[in-house]
Write a structure and sequence with these properties.
A hairpin with an 8-residue loop joins strand 1 (about 5-10) and strand 2. The chain is an alpha+beta fold. Helix content is about 25%, strand content about 25%.
């Protein structure tokens, strides 16, 4: 099977490393690629939307699984789909929406594969209701280091190690996923402003139970009495009777729009404090104080940035760090303190969101726990960024929280066990399943996974 030596990076475009990129087109070719990984091992890769180094493998093999992209069966009556792990959520939406079904969980981009969704145990705006992606996976087929293909069902140790296991237990080949019924491809959306962080948390706490989806954009450059001011957006799938007559003709039409791609070269410093501060001010002021029942297409509500190909280029050649952490209920003061610190530090982030998590899922390295999660993007070349985020990591770990491995690019390994209590069980199963370390990545080497 041909392989190319290429430079591989995550969506944040930091710390590129060189690996042999292998593109299997059959399950047999995938098994052969695993057998031929060599001393540096291999790791599966989907569409490259992990922000850090989870799908990189310096000096080893990277298996591009996007060639395995068949949808094998759709049960339109029971609401399940059996598909290859290389199928994207975008493709599932194209096929399933006309049948009245939607993916059960989607992150901020639909350009992730089903295998990546399981390996990172992705979450979305509906975690407080629906949990993570793996909660809706009934079973999957896993190619393990011994070359065996195992059918893995819910409630087994191998399922729980693989869901959120960042591809380190094997290569997911197929999955059976339970779907969400919908009557239209439109969302009914409520939008409101929150004047500060406490106002936002109060609105989320008292009102989230009325919505399937909830997320808040937060201004992390606002200070003083405005610290944490936000725009809160919540909604649900619009029922057929809420659509205007024209939209009822084709209620399940899925027509994502696309804008021109971001330029290949963007001047460094474009997203500095001044420009991001101006953007944040305009974004907050243009948001309605309160608007109810606005109809929005699915792409506009869930994936606005997908309309701009290669939007990650706007951070310049230095790339950016996506930092996401969660702290539990009862740890609100830790969240307040971290937001104040980010604000006082002047971190220029225009893609900062706050959500509430519901009950966690059984994945041993799954990220969500009940509580509050904040995600923000920061230009990687910001002076002193590494030491500042190290300090935030200490606060998060001290509060019993954790950072999201699918977005991490720089966590210190000594904090990992405090953040993920099932780490010992994960390492033990991995040693038993893969004693030669066939499956490895830059992330696993950096953190000692």
């Amino acid at each position: 099977m041909p392989a190319d030596s290429v430079s591989v990076t995550g969506w944040g475009r930091t710390a590129p490393t060189t690996a042999r990129l292998v593109r299997p087109r059959t399950y047999g070719e995938a098994a052969a690629a695993v057998r031929e990984c060599g001393a540096r091992g291999g790791i599966a890769r989907g569409l490259g939307r992990a922000y850090g180094d989870a799908a990189q493998n310096a000096g080893g093999a990277v298996l591009d699984m996007t060639g395995l992209d068949r949808i094998h069966a759709v049960d339109a009556g029971g609401g399940t789909v059996l598909c290859d792990a290389g199928v994207s959520l975008h493709r599932l939406m194209e096929v399933l929406l006309p049948l009245g079904w939607f993916v059960p969980v989607t992150p901020g981009t639909r350009y992730v594969t089903v295998g990546g969704a399981i390996g990172a145990d992705i979450h979305g705006k509906n975690h407080h209701v629906s949990g993570s992606f793996s909660r809706h996976v009934l079973s999957f087929e896993l190619l393990t280091a011994d070359g065996e293909i195992r059918t893995v069902g819910r409630g087994t140790p191998l399922f729980d190690a693989t869901a959120g296991g960042m591809g380190l237990t094997g290569v997911i080949l197929t999955a059976t996923v339970r779907l969400q019924p919908v009557e239209s491809a439109l969302m009914s959306v409520d939008t409101e402003r929150a004047t500060d962080l406490d106002d936002l948390m109060a609105r989320l706490t008292t009102g989230d139970h009325r919505y399937r989806y909830s997320v808040a954009w937060i201004d992390l450059l606002a200070r003083g009495a405005r610290t944490g001011r936000s725009v809160l957006t919540r909604g649900d799938h619009a029922p057929l009777d809420a659509l205007p007559p024209r939209a009822r003709r084709h209620p399940l039409a899925f027509r994502p729009s696309r804008l021109p791609a971001a330029p290949a070269f963007v001047p460094e410093g474009l997203l500095g404090r001044t420009t991001v501060g101006l953007f944040n001010e305009l974004w907050y002021r243009k948001a309605p104080r309160a608007r109810r029942g606005e109809l929005q297409p699915i792409p506009a509500f869930f994936h606005p940035l997908d309309g701009v190909p290669h939007w990650n280029r706007v951070y310049g050649r230095g790339g950016f760090v996506q930092y996401q952490f969660v702290v539990g209920h009862g740890r609100e003061e830790t969240l307040r303190r971290i937001v104040r610190r980010i604000s006082e530090r002047g971190c220029p982030s225009f893609l900062a969101v706050l959500k509430r998590f519901g009950e966690g899922d059984p994945g041993w390295l799954s990220f969500p726990v009940p509580g509050w999660t904040l995600a923000l993007d920061i230009p990687a070349n910001l002076p002193g960024l590494g030491s500042f985020l190290d300090e935030l990591d200490e606060e998060v770990a001290g509060a019993g929280g954790r950072v999201y491995l699918a977005k991490d690019a720089r966590l210190r390994p000594e904090l990992l066990a405090a953040m993920y209590p099932r780490l010992g069980a994960f390492r033990s199963l991995r040693r038993e399943l893969d004693p030669r370390g066939v499956f490895t990545s830059d992330l696993s080497r950096r953190l000692g996974l």
